[in-house]
Amino acid sequence: MPAMDFRCLRCLCLAMCVADGLAPPRWQRLATGAIQPSGWLKTQMQLQAAALTSHLPLFWDNVQNTSWLGGNADNVGGIHESTPYWLNGAVPLAVQLQDEALLRTVEKYMDGILDRQTQEGWLGPDTDRSDFWSRYPFLMAMVQHHEALRPGARRKRIEEAALRFFAAVRQRLQGGVPLTSWSSFRAHDLIWTIHYFLDALQGSAASTTLQDLAALAEHLHSHGFDWNGLWFNSSNFAKEAVIKTSMETHGVNNAQAVKHGIVWARQSGNATEGWAETWLAWEQLQRYHGQPHGAFGADEHLAGRTPSRGTELCVVVESMWSLALASQLAPGDEEAVLALDALESLAFNALPGSLSEDLWSHPYLQFANSYQAVSNEPDHVWANDGPQAAMYGLAPNYECCTANFHQGYPKFAGSLFFEDGKQQELVSALWAPSVVNATVGLAHVELRTSYPFNTSVEYWIQNEKPFTLKIRLPKFLRTVTPAPVTVLLDGHSVKAEAVSGFLRLPIPVAARRLAVKISFAMAPSVNGYPDQGVSVYFGPLLLALDLREQRQLVQRYAFNAADWNTTATLPWRLAMPPSPHLGTPRFVAPGPRPMASNNCPVTLEATLLAVPSSAWPVRHGAPGPVNGTCRGGEQVQRTFIPYACTSIRVSALPLAGGEPVLV
Ligand SMILES: *[C@@H]1O[C@H](CO)[C@@H](O)[C@H](O)[C@H]1NC(C)=O
Ligand SMILES: *[C@@H]1O[C@H](CO)[C@@H](O)[C@H](O)[C@H]1NC(C)=O
Ligand SMILES: *[C@@H]1O[C@H](CO)[C@@H](O)[C@H](O)[C@H]1NC(C)=O
Ligand SMILES: *[C@@H]1O[C@H](CO)[C@@H](O)[C@H](O)[C@H]1NC(C)=O
Ligand SMILES: *[C@@H]1O[C@H](CO)[C@@H](O)[C@H](O)[C@H]1NC(C)=O
Ligand SMILES: *[C@@H]1O[C@H](CO)[C@@H](O)[C@H](O)[C@H]1NC(C)=O
Ligand SMILES: *[C@@H]1O[C@H](CO)[C@@H](O)[C@H](O)[C@H]1NC(C)=O
C-alpha cells in the first residue's frame, strides 16, 4: 500500500479541503451510556441481560472457552466471531443498564483479550492471517467501551491497543495478505471503527499516525468489495429469491453493506453521494425482498417477498445498525427520517418478533407467515439453512445469531437521541422510554412514554443553557398534514409544525423542570402488497393473528436455555374481507414481559373470513400459495396482537374477493 498523504487524498476526493480529519458528521452520536433505557425498554433489556447476555460466559463453549482467551472454542468454520459478537452487544448493554456484574464480566474479557495482544499488534486468535473479519465486532466493542469511559488509563489503553492493531492490519496488507471473503465484503465495519479513533485522537496523536489511519481506511475501501458498483447499482442485483448463491447474495452481508456508502462519505466528504448509495441499497433490498416486519427476506441468501420465506436474526440487528448510522450521517433531515422509519419498524417488529418473550431463545429464521416453528423440519420452505432453522432455541441451525443478537436493543437505545452541536439541537430521533444527559443545553431529559403501546410522549427537561428540542414524528404521523398531534410546553398549547419530519421546540432555561407533552391519534390501517397479501399496522406496529401458540420442550441446556417446538392452537387460514372490519385497539400497560403473547400491550378484535384448506394448502411445512380468489368463507372473530408478541403468526393475509394472492 503506498504511503498516502491524508490531506492530498482528501483533496483528491473533494473539491474543497476539509480543514482537519474527516468531514464532521451532521449529527453526533451520544457516547454509549449517555442514553439509558427506562420503562418497557429497560424491562426488555434487563430481561436480555438476565438471560443470555449474562449467562453465555457461564455455560456456552464459544464464549466460556473462547480462543480469544486461549481456550479451545470459538473456532467454528475457522473463524472466531462469537465472543466479539457477544461483546459488541454486552458492552453497551452493561453500560446502559449500569449493570455492575455484567460490566465486570465484559471488562474481564476486554482486559484478557488486550493482555494477549501480540508484539505485532494482532488481537485474537491468529489461525488465518487474512481473517481480519472476526476482529471487526471486537473493535466495535472497543469503541463503545472507549466512549463510555472517562479519560484515564483504561481509555488510553484501548486507544493504544486499537492503534497497534490498525498498524498490524496495515502491515499485513502491505505485505501482500489479501483482503478477501468476509473481511472484504464487510470492510466498512472496520472503516467505521478506524474513523472513530481518527476523531477521538484528533489533536493528541501524531499527524503521521492519523494519516496512516486514513490511508488504511482508504485501502480497505478501495480493495473491499464494491457494493454499489457491482451489486446494488448494477444489473447483477437479485430481483427475486436467489438460486445461485455467492458472498453478495448473503443476507447478513447485504445488511452490513447498507452502511457502505454513508460510512465512506465521511472520508470522501460527499454525504449526498454516500447517502444515495446507502439508500439505493436499502430500497433495492426492500423493493425485491421486503417483508411486512420491516426486514428483508434472507433465509441465508436473499429470499424475495413471499411471507413464508425466512429472515435471519443477524440480518435484523445488522440492518438496524446500518440504518442507525445512515440516519446519523445523512445529508439532511428528509433523508434521516427515512432511515429512522426503517429502523423503527425493525426495532418494534422484526427484532422482538425473533426473540422469545423471556429472551432466552430465538429462531435462526423468522417468518411473516408460519403456523409452527419446530425442530427438525426436513421438508422446509427455506432454501439454504438446515432443518432446525425455524425452531426457537439456544443456537438453532448455526451459532452466529446466539452471539450477535445482543447488539440489537443496546444500539437501538443508543440511537434514540443524537445531537447537532452546531445548531445546539437535541434530536429525539425515535420514541421509546429513556433518559438522556445531553451535551447541548447541558440538558437532562426524561422521555416518559409507553410508545409504541400508548399515544402520548412526555419530555421532562432540566437544562443549564437554552437549546432546541428537535423531535422526529414517526411516519404514520407524517402522512397527514397538519400532523394530528397536540403539543403542550409547560402546560401551554404550542403551534408546532413539522418541517421535513421534525418538530422544533426552543427550550429556554427555566427555574424548574419543563414538560413537553405530545399526544396523537393512532388508528389501525390495512396495507396491501400485490405479492404479499394484506397486513394490519397500528402506528409503527405490525399486527399479526394471535394463533394462541404453545410450546413444547425439545431440549434443555444450562440455566433457562432450551430448544422449543412452537405450534398453533387456533386455525391460521383466515382472509381479510374486502372491507375490513376491525374493532378499536385496546391498550394495557406493558408487563414484566413486555412482549408476552398472552399479556400483550395491544389487542385488536377483527372479523375475518375462514379459508378452506383446499384454497390455502400447506407447502413444505408452511402456508403455501393461495389457490384462487377466496370468497364466501364463514365469518370468524379473531384477535390481532403485535407481531412483536408472537413467535409464530400470520401477518400477511389473503384479501377475500380480491385478486388471487400468492402467499
Ligand atoms: C446523568 O447525570 C447524572 C448526574 O451526573 C447521573 O446521576 C445520571 O446517571 C446520568 N444519566 C445518564 C442517562 O447518563
Ligand atoms: C469449558 O472448558 C472447561 C475446561 O476444559 C470444561 O470443563 C467445560 O465443560 C467447557 N465448557 C463447555 C460449555 O463446553
Ligand atoms: C457529490 O457527489 C455527487 C454525485 O456523485 C456529485 O454530483 C457532486 O458534485 C458531489 N459533490 C461534491 C462536493 O463533490
Ligand atoms: C446508479 O447508476 C446510474 C447509472 O449509471 C447513475 O445515474 C446513478 O447515479 C447511480 N446511483 C448511485 C446511487 O450510485
Ligand atoms: C418437535 O417437533 C418435531 C417435528 O415435528 C417432532 O419430531 C418432535 O417429536 C417434536 N418434539 C416435541 C417434544 O414435541
Ligand atoms: C398511556 O399514557 C397515559 C398518559 O401518560 C396514561 O395515563 C395511561 O395510563 C397510559 N396507558 C397505558 C395503557 O399505559
Ligand atoms: C387449486 O385447487 C384446485 C381445486 O381444488 C386443485 O385442482 C388445484 O390442484 C389447486 N392448485 C394448487 C396450485 O394447489
TrEMBL record:
It comes from the Eukaryota. Keywords: Signal. SUPFAM superfamilies: Six-hairpin glycosidases. InterPro entries: 6-hairpin_glycosidase_sf. Transmembrane segments: none annotated. Residues 1-23 form the signal peptide. GO terms for biological process: carbohydrate metabolic process. The keyword Signal applies. This is Non-reducing end beta-L-arabinofuranosidase. It comes from Symbiodinium natans.
